[in-house]
Amino acid sequence: MRRFASIAGALLVGFLAVVLLAPPSAAADSAFSIGGRLNNQVGAQKVPVANVLVTVTGSGFTGTATSGPDGVWVVSVPGEGAYDVTLETASLPQGIALTDPSRGTVHTTVQTPTVNRIVIFPLGESTQKTTNPWTQVAQLTVEGVRYGLLIALGAVGLSLIYGTTGLTNFAHGELLTFGALMTWIANVPLHMPFVLAAIVGLGLSAAFGWVQNTGLWRPLRKRGTGLLAMMIVSIGLALLLRNVFLFFFGGDKRAYGEYAGMAGLSLGPVSLTPTDLVAMVISVIALALVVLAVQKTRMGKATRAVADNPALASSAGIKVEGVIQSVWVVGALMAGLSGILLGFTQQVSYLMGFQVLLLIFAAVTLGGLGTIWGAIVGSLVVGLFLQLTTLIIPPELKNVGALLVLIVILLVRPYGLLGRRERVG
Amino acid sequence: MDWGYIFSVTLQSAFGIEAIVFGLMAIGLNLQFGYTGLLNFGQSAFLAVAAYSLAVLVTDMGFTFWVGIGVGLLAAVVLALLLGIPTLRLRADYLAIVTIAAAEIVRLLVRSVALKDIFGGSDGLRDFSAGFYALNPVTVGQYSLGPVSLNQDKVFVLIVGWVLVVLSLLMVWMLVRSPWGRILKGIREDEDAVRSLGKNVYFVKMQSLIIGGVLGCLGGFIYALGYQNVGPDFFGTDTTFFAYAILILGGAARVLGPLLGTIVFWALIQGTDVLLRSGIDAGFPLVAWMSGSQAAVVRYIIVGAGLMLLMIFRPQGILGDRKELALDAR
Amino acid sequence: MPDSAPELGPRAIASRQILADVPRLAGVRKPDPIVVADGIIRRFGGLTAVDVERVEIQRGAITALIGPNGAGKTTFFNLLTGFDQPDEGHWSFNGTSLSGMPSYKVARSGMVRTFQLTKALSKMKVIENMRLGAAHQQGEHLAKAIFPFTWRPQERAITAQADQLLARFNLDAKRNDFAGSLSGGQRKLLEMARALMCDPSMLMLDEPMAGVNPALTQSLLGHITDLREEGMSILFVEHDMDTVRHIADWVIVMAQGRIIAEGPPDTVMHNEAVIDAYLGGHYDQALTTSGVSFTEEATS
């Protein structure tokens, strides 16, 4: 264990050193550019839109581009900096409009050369008619399951940590962000192929979980710090980490170097990008592995014992701290995986974990605090709710739907859908 | 390094609008969390509800300032009831999650494009303060308080704000010394013990939640009137967490804790920020490599680290008593 | 364990005389019941924790509720005091129905309980603990709380009453200390004294002797019997049979959620069903080595 610790610690430090001390991109004469692909969402299909004008302005420069037959447009810009990208709505063909008219201009920053800075303008039918409501439902259901699976990866870790240590970890979102950010660094500035970058990201996530438990939570537990105090410590940690991320990586959203902005594959009534599909498969495999581990392996049984009654488990010979250590490593690993996969949907930013933290809490509470199946079921329910409610309410308010469901379910079944009924109050 | 400038900025921050707003938030939280043990993580929702009630009623609907204030207070009470009725019978964690969720819902609603006509979306609302400033008895002109220079409107809102702070502190002081306050302290430690003595615990918790929420909503009014503008970005969970940091720093369950906490907090935060920027401008090698946007982030890193250290090493804060600590830490 | 039973005062003697005529049957009616419970059933998942057809508790007497572990005593105790709600059944206290009443209302109606794991509020001073116990406090109403002149006089009266009780329980020296600084036994006394601040007509004690050293036990027993002499009805849950034998006027025995026997201590302790419940059946058979293990025997 100690050797793993020192290796992990060294890796982490070394990686951070590379990142922080690496000089800014040397080749100043490489091409910087901003671009994107314009697609019209027709029911489940994404149809490229051609001949649309996009203008880029910034620091005295103005450039334009017109989207080609594949919907792709690219504008070369003179260098690093902030730019405003405007879609000239007058050039849109009949019947097609921006889905959010107030977002016709996007402010973005270009920092890396040789990688297209991607800006997305979602387009849809200008009249709100959809060709077939059931395809929409099918599409949203699949989206809901996909998002739910990604949340489940994070929720499982949170639930396990809560179950074994009682800690409500407000810094869990930052584990997601960390995984995504590390992967992005490996992938983009350090030019590793994505899969390798992801593995690096996962390894560092697991190491980070280990470091957190060994360096912070275990000493606090040893001191006898109360659960409420530890929760507030986690709130401080979350603030700290979030702003450290902001400090080093800036406020922008960034996409991975590969596999971003792909076209959807049609699978029956539903359209999914290949990355979505792969992400879903990976999530299912990861979740299945964790569930199997908890239910079948000795370590899993030990984990359940500790979650049930640590004192009793300890007197039965179970090394409680060892179990908690593994829970932190696995939980952080899963959270990192969740962040990495989420980076495809909502791009990588310092806030990404924080933004889903509340949804993860909702999922875990909904499903029943401290149970694995509860975390998974709760996440799927939250994911489905998020997407399906967009049929009735505007997409920007979909979180409201999920949170309202949480509150309502707590009224009716305070111990969650799968939780055990304790004497409440 | 212009020390006079640094000092003046720090002073302004320690006694300015934000100190007042967060002070009122923390006083409300002190009653709810410090004295009763209720985990209200949605305090920013009370501010939002109050500020937006005022803004919407005056700007959108043309009512007078006083009507706006009245509706804001009512809205805060209603919010407290909505939050409390389902959750006060459950475990403390549930109140925390429900209050965070509620605050997020409020923030998303006032930020939304769909409701932009009412709440002004991400730009927010303005033009509702005229009624307030019309009441300003202070004569027009610039007033200097040491190195700080303020106009009559600023002076007015600061006076009103600090008067509200003092009145709130007075009320909290009277309440916690009373038998009602005694029940709060009992509830904080063990609800069942208090029930076994015939006290209606649920009802008292609800009262505490409501009063704390109303105090927070006063902060919302001062925020709106002080900046003459309400926008959704202030009312996120970070604001509530800052208020907790202030409460714990000053000393939870101490009447003057929030007051001391807010003054020290804002002095520290703003002081280090302006110190840092001056250092960067002056070219100190230790900090000169930071960009402006990075420098702005440092103070939040300090808040996060500070909160952690506080909880680990001195959870009773500046004024608190370890023996009476409700925070369950050693 | 106490060597000598506290002397029986006049009320005790009177109670025992009345109870002498009561048949020794489970669920039997009492001449002057203060608590009457009917058909109480409480289930947890698939398990029926409590199934009491009928029980009556005699006013002014000390009644003990005993039974082996897992008998449902604590659950039944919680049900009677409003800290749990039964699935079926009703019961009344002093003629008023308590069914569905929340625990604080039960306390207000005159039935006050203590806890097995003492709930002295350790972060409050002893005298504050006592003041908290008083009932009908004006200052507890929010509107009046801000105006001290409305509750100061009453507060003085309450404090005087508190000091009297503290003196009676020998805690007056600790008046201004935090309850957390008291020893375990002193906290038990504090909890009892605090409960008396409510002016109850019935005291429900949950394992009052648990974790108490022998010297203090004598003192506690003395306080309990003194209360009986003042007319208080007392029900206590207890494991220690010596305590039960010495002070209880009447004993109710529970096993597996049911009441299996009632009567004065001596009768109950020689009751076959009671002995079986505690020791398991076949306790008097010789241990054999032919196929039947010891543990099987003892738990059958």
Topology at a glance:
The complex is a heterotrimer of chains A (425), B (330) and C (300).
Chain A: H1 2-21, E1 32-37, E2 39-42, E3 45-48, E4 53-58, E5 61-66, E6 72-77, E7 81-87, E8 96-98, E9 105-110, E10 117-118, E11 123-125, H2 133-165, H3 172-187, H4 194-223, H5 227-249, E12 265-267, E13 270-272, H6 274-296, H7 298-308, H8 310-315, H9 320-346, H10 352-367, H11 372-388, H12 398-412
Parallel strand pairs in A: 1-10, 2-11
Antiparallel strand pairs in A: 1-6, 2-3, 4-5, 4-7, 7-9, 8-11, 12-13
Chain B: H1 3-15, H2 17-35, H3 43-60, H4 65-87, H5 92-111, H6 116-119, E1 125-126, H7 130-133, E2 142-145, E3 148-151, H8 152-177, H9 179-189, H10 191-196, H11 201-227, E4 229-230, H12 237-250, H13 257-282, H14 292-313
Antiparallel strand pairs in B: 1-4, 2-3
Chain C: H1 10-20, E1 33-44, E2 47-58, E3 62-66, H2 73-80, E4 88-93, E5 96-97, H3 103-108, E6 111-113, H4 126-133, H5 142-145, H6 152-168, H7 184-196, E7 202-206, H8 214-229, E8 233-237, H9 241-247, E9 250-255, E10 258-263, H10 265-269, H11 272-279, H12 294-299
Parallel strand pairs in C: 3-8, 3-9, 6-7, 7-8
Antiparallel strand pairs in C: 1-2, 1-4, 4-5, 9-10
Helix pairs in contact in C: 4-7
Structure write-up:
The complex is a heterotrimer of chains A (425), B (330) and C (300). Chain A is an alpha+beta fold. Chain A contains 12 helices and 13 strands. Chain A has 2 domains: 100 residues, Immunoglobulin-like (Sandwich); 260 residues, ABC transporter involved in vitamin B12 uptake, BtuC. In chain A, helix 4 crosses helix 9 and helix 11 packs across helix 12. About 3% of the residues of chain A have low confidence. Chain B is built from 14 helices and 4 strands. The mean pLDDT of chain B is 90. Chain B has a two-stranded antiparallel ribbon with strand order 1-4. In chain B, strands 2-3 form a two-stranded antiparallel ribbon. In chain C, helix 4 packs parallel to helix 7. The interface between A and B is large, with 47 and 50 residues.
